[in-house]
Each structure stands twice: as C-alpha cells, then as structure tokens.
C-alpha cells in the first residue's frame, strides 16, 4: 500500500460571500516533497494554505491529513494535527509581549512537551536561523527577515512532518529571501514536506536549481502544474 | 473540582501568554473587592438578624404577663386569686407582681420621669415565668375569666411574632442580597473575561496556529481571572471585616448592637474570597468556552 499523502485536497472549492475563489482543486503533497504555490494576488494562495492546516474548511470537497478527513474534526482535533504541521505566515503572527525565544518555544509549551529540553536545544535552533543574539528581544524589535526566520524556527521546533510557508519572503530583500529559501530546502532534505506560497518567480527559479520542486499555479479558479515556462 | 485544583497548582506558561495589562484587570480586581466588601457586610447583617431573631424568640417565649384591670377595691383580691391559680397551673415556673416603681420605669419612655403615678389608676402586672412545656393557655384563660374577670393572660405572641418575623425577614433579604452579589460578581468577571479574550484575538490566533487546544487557551484566561478575583476579594473581605469590627456597639441597641461575627461565625467571611474565586473560575471558563466557540 502506498504511503498516504501528507496533505490531500480533493475537489476542494472555496467561496466567500457568494464569490468563488477557486473550485474543484485537487492536489496531493507526497511525504518529503517540495511544492511551490504561485499565482496572481487574490488568486487564493493564502486561502489554500489555510485549508492545508485546517484554519479554513472548504465549502465543497475535502481535505485530508495523512488520510484523515478534516471535515468532521472538531477544533481540538485540528489543533492536535497542527502539531505535525509547521506554519510560517507572511505576517509571522507572534505574541508581542513574549520574547523571541518564548515565541519559538510556544508549540512545545502548548503541547505539554518538555520545555526544559527544548530550551536547552534552543541555542542550536537559534544558531540555525541566525538569531542567537536576539533570543531575548521582543518580536516588534526584529526586522522583517529576522521575524520570518524566528517564525520558521517556531514552525520546526516540534519537528513537524509538513512545513507550510505563506509568502515567507514577501517582506524581505533578495539576500534574506535566499537565506530563508536555503532553510526551507534544508528542511526538505531532512524529509519534511514543504509547501511554499510565493509570487516571486525568481525565487522559484533559484530553488529549482537546488531542489526537485513542483510548482502549482492558481489561475482562473483552478490549480495547474506550471511547466517549462518557469 | 479537579480542574480547579489543576488551576490552583498553576500553569505559568499558559498564564504568561495573556498580557498582564488591560482595563479588564482593574475592573476584575475592583469589582471583586467591592463585592467581597458588601458580601462580608451583608453576611454580618444576616447572621446578626438570625441571632437576634433567635434571641427574641427565646427571651419572649419563656415568659408571659397577666394584666389585671379591675375597680380599685377588687384589684388586689383578683391579683391574689390570679397568683393562686397560676401557682396551681402546670407549666408555670414562677410569678412576680411588678411594683409601682417597676411600672413607672416601664412608662418612663413615654411619659417621662415627672409622672405622678399615684394619681393614675394602673393595672396590676404579674410577670409569669414559664417552664419548657408551658401551660395549657386556653384552659388557663378560661379559668382566669371565671375566677378573676379583670385578668388578661398575655403570652407576648402579639409582640413576639412581628419582631421575629422582622428579624427573619431581614435575614432573608440579606441572603437575597448575597445571591445578587454573587450573580453580579459572576457576570462582571465573565464580561471582563470575554472582553479580554476579544481583545487578545491575536494571541488566540497564534496559540491556535501552533496547535493549542481550547482548554489550554481557556486555562490561560481562567487562571488569570480566578487569581485576580481571589486577590481582589481577599482585599475587599479584609476591609469589610475591619469595617464591621468598627461598627459602634450600642448598649441595649438590639440588632444594631449585635452586627458582627461571633465564635464560629468568623468562618463565613473567610469563605468569601475562595467562594469568589470559584465563582470567577466557573464564569471565566464558561465565557472562554463561549467566546472560543464563537471565534470558530
């Protein structure tokens, strides 16, 4: 029997206030795969990412995590599933009165994990994203790139199976974009499934020189596999 | 109860995710303090009213008075007859005829000290002490009517009932006030918690994003509001106890002289802060569950 898809959307549709954002979207993220999700602004990239971690439910169709249908899951079951999914948003979403280190530790804290051990490993994690010196700072004191890297550190602290990144390079310069891309590629090489939404085609082209990535494009309410034009 | 014990043991990590500042903190503490102050005062009133009712009931129920209103030449004869009858009646512990001076003292509040009592024809009053079982009042009244027609047996029921009713009514009102205080405290804390949860939408979004279950988020707010209420209520209760202790004692002032706590009654005001905390725990948990459900 084949390995289940990490995330699978089957004929998923999403409508807001009578406006259909996309319809009949089917995709499978195989374990260990790297996907880019691209498309014009307003095409529904963020919405599709939110479907992928259960923040939204499709108006039609279904979404499964490792073959578990999310349609009948309650909030707490979805919460437990999210511990297997690391999410990086463009706006990062931190708790501003906590330090960077405390924010990164949040997934361990809320899951009742071993906070002391995670704290001991924190140096390595902060070193990996290049934020050792900023551990005690508050998120509002960080630059855009630093915030994105802190969000990435938080996303991976529970060693999730899947990383979902929504425009992780949207607010940073090219050099920082490459750094963040490098971290995502490292995670993929460690066996993580990565889905990265971006409108930056240069970044996708750069990534394809280093990793075997599929590019999905949202267009005209559907999703298609982007081909050679990249 | 387990949830409350877990909460008291604490989960500082959960609590720390909620910002400490905000008007809801002040609102909760101030409301808890004010309500605890009122609760202690009302408790003192309720306990005093209950105590007073019991005292009045006891002091008036073991005594009676026989009043003899008869022409001057017959009064003493009838009084002697009444005393004889009372001495023969089971349930009567003793009798004592009030002297003129004692009667003057009784009338003093109404007529002053210069009243020439000797010019007034006053009834003869006999103070009767009853045993625990008391007499057969109907039979006694019939015998008095037959042998001493000027004598009226008064068991104080006419006075006792309204006084006891008044004291018991005051106690009932105090208990209603306590229930209202508890209700207002619960509603205020729940509203403050709801407002805090609404104001911390971003925190809740982040917690959900990183996999927090509803009970974790709820616990973060519940612990904060429960402890705030406990602190506020403790301060309010302490102030209330001091205020009750400072109420001036009026000698012979009835209820006013008795407001306060005596003996084991001191346990009650000490229970106000933990009771407020339990109330806040329940109210906050319900409010958090409702808000989190609404938030989807």
UniProtKB/TrEMBL annotation, chain A:
Q: Which GO terms describe its biological process?
A: cell division
What residue stretches are annotated with the ABC transporter domain?
Answer: 7-230
- What are the protein's UniProt keywords? ATP-binding, Cell cycle, Cell division, Nucleotide-binding
Q: Which GO terms describe its molecular function?
A: ATP binding; ATP hydrolysis activity; transmembrane transporter activity
Which PROSITE patterns does the record cross-reference, listed alphabetically? Answer: ABC_TRANSPORTER_1, ABC_TRANSPORTER_2
* SMART domains (alphabetical): AAA (SM00382)
* GO CC terms, sorted: plasma membrane
The record's section on SUPFAM superfamilies has: P-loop containing nucleoside triphosphate hydrolases
Alphabetical list of Pfam families matching this protein: ABC_tran
Cross-referenced PANTHER family:
CELL DIVISION ATP-BINDING PROTEIN FTSE, IMPORT ATP-BINDING PROTEIN
**What's the name of the protein?**
Cell division ATP-binding protein FtsE
Species classification: Bacteria, Pseudomonadati, Pseudomonadota, Alphaproteobacteria, Rhodobacterales
From TrEMBL, chain B:
Q: How does it sit in the membrane?
A: Multi-pass membrane protein
Q: Which GO BP terms, alphabetically?
A: cell division
Listed GO CC annotations? cell division site; plasma membrane
Annotated InterPro entries? ABC3_permease_C, FtsX
Q: Where in the cell is it found?
A: Cell membrane
The membrane spanning regions, by residue number, are: 23-47, 225-247, 267-288
Q: For this UniProt record, give its keywords in alphabetical order, as a comma-separated list.
A: Cell membrane, Membrane, Transmembrane, Transmembrane helix
Q: Where this protein primarily resides, as one coarse class?
A: membrane
Domain of life assignment: Bacteria
Cross-referenced Pfam families: FtsX (PF02687)
List each copy of the ABC3 transporter permease C-terminal domain by range: 176-292
Name of this chain's protein: FtsX-like permease family protein
Species per Swiss-Prot/TrEMBL record: Boseongicola aestuarii
């Amino acid at each position: 029997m084949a390995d289940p898809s990490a995330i699978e959307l089957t004929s998923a549709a999403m409508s807001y206030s009578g406006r259909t954002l996309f319809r009949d979207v089917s995709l499978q993220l195989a374990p260990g795969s790297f996907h880019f999700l691209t498309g014009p602004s307003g095409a529904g990239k963020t919405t599709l990412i939110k479907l992928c971690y259960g923040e939204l439910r499709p108006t039609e169709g279904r979404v499964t995590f490792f073959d578990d249908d999310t349609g009948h899951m309650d909030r707490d079951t979805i919460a437990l599933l999210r511990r297997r999914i690391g999410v990086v948003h463009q706006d990062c979403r931190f708790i501003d009165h906590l330090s960077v280190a405390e924010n990164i530790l949040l997934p361990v804290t809320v899951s009742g994990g071993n906070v002391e051990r995670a704290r001991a490993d924190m140096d390595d994690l902060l070193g990996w994203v290049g934020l050792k010196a900023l551990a005690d700072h508050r998120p509002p004191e960080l630059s855009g790139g630093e915030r994105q890297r802190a969000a990435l550190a938080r996303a991976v602290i529970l060693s999730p199976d899947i990383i979902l990144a929504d425009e992780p390079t949207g607010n940073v310069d090219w050099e920082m974009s490459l750094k963040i891309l490098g971290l995502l590629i490292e995670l993929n090489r460690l066996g993580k499934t990565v889905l990265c939404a971006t409108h930056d085609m240069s970044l996708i082209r750069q990534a394809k020189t280093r990793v075997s990535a599929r590019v999905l494009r949202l267009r005209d309410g559907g999703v298609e596999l982007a081909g050679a034009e990249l | 109860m387990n949830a409350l014990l877990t909460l008291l043991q604490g989960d500082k990590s959960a609590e720390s995710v909620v910002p400490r500042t905000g008007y809801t903190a002040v609102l909760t503490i101030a409301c808890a303090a004010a309500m605890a102050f009122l609760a202690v005062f009302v408790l003192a009133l309720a306990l005093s009213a209950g105590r007073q009712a019991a005292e009045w009931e006891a002091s008036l129920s073991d005594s009676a008075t026989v009043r003899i209103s008869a022409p001057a030449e017959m009064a003493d004869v009838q009084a002697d007859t009444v005393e004889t009858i009372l001495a023969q009646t089971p349930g009567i512990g003793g009798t004592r005829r009030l002297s003129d001076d004692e009667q003057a003292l009784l009338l003093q509040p109404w007529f002053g000290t210069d009243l020439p009592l000797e010019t007034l024809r006053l009834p003869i009053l006999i103070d009767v002490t009853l045993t625990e079982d008391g007499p057969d009042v109907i039979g006694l009244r019939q015998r008095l009517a037959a042998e001493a027609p000027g004598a009226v047996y008064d068991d104080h029921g006419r006075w006792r009932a309204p006084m006891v009713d008044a004291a018991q009514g005051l106690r009932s009102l105090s208990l209603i006030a306590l229930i209202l205080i508890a209700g207002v405290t619960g509603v205020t804390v729940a509203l403050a918690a709801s407002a805090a949860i609404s104001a911390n939408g971003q925190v809740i979004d982040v917690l959900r994003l990183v996999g927090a279950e509803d009970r974790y988020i709820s616990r973060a707010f519940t612990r904060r509001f429960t402890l705030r209420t406990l602190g506020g209520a403790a301060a309010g209760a302490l102030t209330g106890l001091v205020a009750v202790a400072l109420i001036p004692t009026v000698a012979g002032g009835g209820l006013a002289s008795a407001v306060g706590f005596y003996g084991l009654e001191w346990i009650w005001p000490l229970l106000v802060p933990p009771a407020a905390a339990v109330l806040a725990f329940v109210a906050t948990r319900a409010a958090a569950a409702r808000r989190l459900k609404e938030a989807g």
